[in-house]
Design brief:
By secondary structure, this protein is mainly alpha-helical. Helix content is about 75%, strand content about 0%. Strands 1-2 form a two-stranded antiparallel sheet.
């Protein structure tokens, strides 16, 4: 079935690289890599930020491509219009090769950051792969997101000069953002997923429960970033909390009114961006 789909529509030489990139889930891939770069630069990584971004970017590429590779049969069965594999613009074998190549590059780039940072980052990437390879079908579908997002600031911290660690509240906030992002990302696909045998936690909670729960996790993460650091709440922290609350609330309303909207996931990315802004200049590193 995959081979027939892959050959159904000829691809031009100019279009092929773009279609392959579209199969990597470019939205979250670029967002996570950019936010990691901003946090690295803001935390004093300097030129080392380029290596940090490269490691994160290749890891995200491998995860995104592995999703379209592993889910090819399911996506074809439901006719996903946003997946290049579905209409044959990209062959499944091409996506598989790209995913494995990106994973190999990620291993090398991660360990160039140091053994500790590299090991933590690769655990985060492996956790994301575990979601694609099967955990998405279980009630533990949230766990890879929580672990991967929670470990990312720890990996970034260990990659900085002096190898500090991340404060506990940053790791916890990252895990909460991961849980919120998971729910927001799955919401538009609940029906298609259920039709192809996927019954993760969001599918068990239902659309309303997932929308409210995701917003709650995102807000809890923002509150933690504002109140956990020592000292009084800053003006910037208060503004960030207001912005995150408004965005999360808007995402919830849209999710409840339009089941197929991608805005809730965009809202999760915006809240993650607010979190990064709150972290820059805050005492999130423990030396």
């Amino acid at each position: 079935m995959q081979a027939v789909s892959a050959e159904r529509k000829p691809r031009s030489a100019l279009r092929a690289p773009l279609d392959l990139f579209l199969a990597c889930h470019p939205g979250p891939t670029i967002a996570v890599s950019t936010l990691a770069g901003v946090l690295a630069v803001g935390s004093g990584a300097g030129a080392r930020s380029v290596l940090i971004v490269a490691a994160v970017f290749t890891g995200q590429l491998s995860v995104g491509w592995s999703n379209d590779w592993v889910d090819a049969d399911r996506d074809i069965a439901v006719g996903r219009p946003d997946k290049p594999v579905v209409d044959g613009r990209v062959a499944v074998g091409t996506v598989r090769a790209a995913s494995l190549s990106a994973a190999a590059a990620c291993v090398v780039l991660s360990f160039l950051l140091g053994w500790a940072a590299g090991a933590v980052h690769l655990v985060a990437v492996a956790s994301a792969w575990s979601y694609n390879l099967g955990l998405k079908r279980t009630a533990w579908s949230w766990a890879p997101y929580a672990l991967s997002f929670g470990l990312l600031p720890m990996a970034l911290a260990l990659a900085l000069p002096g190898r500090p660690t991340a404060a506990w509240w940053v790791v916890a906030a990252g895990a909460l953002i991961g849980v919120g992002a998971h729910g927001a990302n799955v919401l538009p696909d609940l029906l298609d997923d259920a039709a192809t045998g996927i019954h993760g936690l969001p599918h068990r909670l239902g659309a309303a429960g997932t929308a409210v729960g995701s917003a709650g996790a995102l807000l809890a993460a923002t509150v933690l970033l504002v109140v956990a650091p020592a000292g009084p709440i800053t003006t910037g922290g208060a503004v960030g909390l207001v912005v995150a609350t408004g965005v999360a609330a808007a995402g919830t309303v849209v999710a409840l009114r339009s089941r197929h909207s991608r805005f809730p996931f965009l809202a999760a990315i915006i809240v993650a961006a607010v979190a990064v802004v709150l972290l820059v200049g805050s005492p999130w590193l423990v030396h």
